[in-house]
Structure prediction request, 1309 residues.
Amino acid sequence: MRKIIELKGITKSFDGDVVLDHIDLDIYDNEFITLLGPSGCGKTTTLRIIAGFEQPDSGTVTFLGEDLLSLPPHKRNVNTVFQRYALFPHLNVYENIAFPLRVKKAPNDEIDTQVHEMLKLVALEGFEKRSVTSLSGGQQQRVAIARALVSRPKVLLLDEPLAALDAKLRKDMQLELHKIQRASGITFIFVTHDQEEALSMSDTVVVMAEGKIQQIGTPVDIYNEPQNAFVADFIGESNILNGVMLEDRKVRFHGHVFECVDAGFGKNEPVDVVVRPEDVDIVPEEKGMLRGVVTGVTFLGVHYEIIVDVQGFKWMIQTTDFVDVDEHIGLYIEPDAIQIMKKSKYSGMFGDYSSFSNEFDELSDAEAEVEEE
Amino acid sequence: MRKENKGLAAVRRAVLAPYGVWSMIFIVVPLFFVAYYAFTDSSFRFTTENVTRFFTATSTVGGATVHTYLLIFWRSLKLAIISTAICLLLGYPIAYILSRASDRTQKILITLIMIPMWMNFLIRTYAWMTILQDTGILNGLLAKIGLGPVHIIGTETAVVIGMVYDYFPYMILPIYSVMAKLDMKLVEAARDLGCNGWNVLRRVIFPLSLPGVISGVTMVLIPSISTFYISQKLGNGKFYLIGDAIEGQYVANNLHFAAAIALLLMVVLLVCMALMQRYANKRAFV
Amino acid sequence: MFTIKLSAKIYTALILVFLFAPIVILLVFSFNASKSLSVMQGGSLYWYRELFRDAETLGAVRNTLLLAITAAVVSTVMGTAAAVGIHRLRSRYLRLAYDTVTNIPMINPDIITGISLMLMFVFVGRLFGAATSLNFWTMLIAHITFCLPYVILQVLPKLQQMDSSLPEAAMDLGCTPLKAFLKVEIPEIMPGIVTGLIMAFTLSLDDFVISYFTSGNGFETLPIRIYNMTKKTVTPKMYALSTIIFFTILALLIMSNLIDTTAPGVERPEKKVRTAEQKKRLRIAGGIGVVLAAGMIAVMIIGAPDRPVLNVYNWGEYISDGSEDSFNTIKGFEKWYKENYGSEVEVNYSTFASNEDMYSKIASGAVSYDVIIPSDYMIARMREEGMLLPLDKDNIPNYDECIGESFRGLYYDPEDLYTVPYTYSFVGVIWDAEQVDEEDTGDWDLLWNEKYRGNILQFNNSRDAFATAQYKLGLDVNNTDPAEWRAALEELKAQQPLVKSYVMDEIYNMMESGEAAIASYYAGDYFTMVDSEADTVDLQFYVPERTNYFIDAMCIPSCCQQKELAEAFINYMLEEEPAIANAEYIMYGCPNRLVYENEDYAEEMGEEAMEILYPDLDQFAEKFNEFAYRNLDSQTLDLVNTLWEELKIN
Prediction:
């Protein structure tokens, strides 16, 4: 695959706060790449640097091998779909989509053909004369995409475009976006703080935190083999424990030695151990590798989410079996369910469900949406 | 500083530059000229005499010795505060009524309130003379319904009426524009939480409309403290306010003393405004 | 349509009555058949006709509009750009600095903004030795300066409400930053810009105070013209003008409602997309505005006449200007000059409210006039200070024939080098025979008579007011002894409880309507009052033994740029036709033999007027030399000023 955009050593700070700290990133042709991270991690800034709205303090950005930073936004062959769409309220649907072509002074009949093609692509035929303010969120979204695509950019930047949609609509749009990307063959750089969105749509996921790239990989890699506690926690649910790597494929935590599939750590090296909640089996107490007391049960439809206290550490386990609060149970973990990570600055910060609550989780999600940019 | 795309930064500087230069030359520098004149004599030698004179000049009023300019200043302030208070008391309900009226009504009423502002202010003041004088329209009407003549022209009341009239819209409009944006759900919430009508006004609407009140008070107080035409015409020439003093010194070609009065007035007003702003900020968090 | 409660309706109605009462008054009185602003004597369109004949007032209207449109357009363009720049400022300190500076003209009273700009203009003008430092441009600068913050404060919130990614989206889609601004930001913030423009226009139109301090050479706006009418009277003509303005605005507002812009200071709650038709109308309206403003500025710059311009500076309402069927002396001069000298000339006529006002302007070096018409004592002062140029009498051949011995060799110009007398008059006492017993009349004591407490008017200018007390006490008005001035002050203080009002031009209304019974004023003005007195009023006049006699004379200040032209003007003013026209218009005494010996004139004025205005002229010179005000030294002037303030704060 052809490298289309290359970021090297990008550093950026606002008023002394470092937002991007030596970012290196390659983006390939025809790829759906997602920048994923909590608010303030620098993902939007990265996007704005590529779009040309921000200038990095240091580092280079090249586009097909040529310097991109010296070009003003309007000369870059990349277009953006903005978070709140940024549709022009004084123009109707048709004129919004036609806008880039009008700027280029394209002939009217060409504009007409292209706009209609785009309307068809985003399934908004018949909406030409409507005022954009009268459209629903999803429809506005599509107009924004159509407008960004009509001038056939090489790269489309999407800045949390689905954040303002409700859950159902968001799912539909995810599929839609994916379809559009495949159909148009344009590179999509997608920014989101929603890990599910990232996993379901992307070819490549870039997890960012505190201005640094934490991990780059396919969704499966990212989920199954997180490289540090931050990634493990941010992508899906994880129980993260302090452990010691006794030798290759042997790790000890909770005072118990477990078989695992990882190797290549130093002898007795302290590590972070990740176990996904769905990978823990509940067995009768006496058969368990670990024993604990159930302290909480939440019914979530497909499964139960239960919190188990093991020696003071709260595990989260997803299971379809019903257990009751205060029940004593045993936990069983397969070797390939155990993922070993090197210690990082995030060690000990995540992965204990002592204070877990579904509501809190939702609350912080909602906040993140508002805060970003 | 955040670096931006160079083109954008240049555009930004370019659009701000004319105003930057303009405001420097025509807003900031002239204030230094006021200070310069205030502290120099007619041959531009440094002196504090003008400023001292403001504080020390005395005259005899009703047998007692008073500080001339301090008294003038105090009287101007008093009349301005009374006028501002009346504007607020009369204007606040109107702003409230406006903000709760239908869109169409709002538009019509706002236009009606604005229209008198387009009439020349000297002429409007002149028309008030016709209304208020002892043989004027008002007394004519009162006589028709059998009420005794009232003597208004040449009294404080007349001056206050003139000031209230001229600056009334400046009070209504800022309060109205804040109130129009007030979320009615807040009122409902307050009702829900047990406030009666008065409490809703006192505890919810008034604190939230405070920014509008502050800017309304500023916009009325400032011009009414320094007016010199209204006091001449409606005060029967019996009210000598700080504006009259400045104008009087200017006409007497006493520019340096006029500048000194202007400078002191400016300082007092700036201090007042700063205090008010602080009070407003504090209130905003109570 | 009213969805508010009854009490609210009543309250709103009362407030509207309050707001519109004066407007109704001026609508009604603009149709007055007489000259009075307080007594309605039948309806007519007379004042409307007068208005359209009054070239000077119409000129002032044109100036006011020109200034307001230019100031509004410039401040809107610059203010909008500034708002955009400020909005994008990222440094907190710079932002704070701009906010503060923008607030200064709003927090500062007009009078301080006006004075501060005036001081700077005058100082800088003097520094560069400019002949005139105050003119149209300084006024324009002042107006732009105080309009700017209002524009910025209207546009800035619109920018803040706008989705900041809109301009970015435009650039992203291929617009240059400038194009993005024009195509996307401008339409978004248009309501704010329009409101800002309207506010700037309104403020500029109505501004008096700042204009008062920064106005100069011959560029007179309407508010200044009205203010300068304070020696003579404001006529219903001004009400007629206001009425026309009122209906024009009403029409404009209705039109603007059609174009669907908001009233100033008002947010529109919901956003509507304009229809193509509305957009078109808006564009047309905007286009017309821009073209008008550009045209007017172009006229100002290019159209400045290549023919010589004569700047004349006179009292308000102090020349026969074609109003009320009089002869237009200014147009007359232009025509006469063409006939006699064969070339075009243009007179730029402006007015002042008092000698001191005029002196301040000229002494500041801020203005340049060719002919001025001050009073005797001011002439003496200006002559001593070297502010006058000697006249070349060869260029004023009418002088010898017209000006009699009585008006030559007077104290202010003993050798008749600097002046040609224009009018003369004296102060007398006007009394209403319906309210005042004849036996009480005759001298100054009437103004101190307890019987008429609350019915007496006194001058609202220091020199004239002090003089009444000095004449009453038998003191010399030209004394420099502080003790004597104090004595006069005490006399005025004693009179104060009896005084209804300190007046200048208000005297007309008050005497005509019977609002007051006794006043002292200038002889000729008495006739104006008699002409429009109410039925219940019977005004009479007498001249006390000791009183102020004064002469207003034409002279040429040292800032004059067109001396020969100025002399030609002075010469023309002595010609029979303009001189009689002026004498009839002003109704003061005229020192021109061609006038007072003219029988038609005598008939026109009437017997009583001729008797009062033209007593034995030999005696006039004698009385003038004995009683007229002389110029006081600056120390005494300052004292008088201080004593006057003391009186006024009592």
User: Anything to note?
Assistant: DSSP finds twelve helices and two strands in chain B. Chain B touches chain A at residues 2-8 (CB under 8 Å).
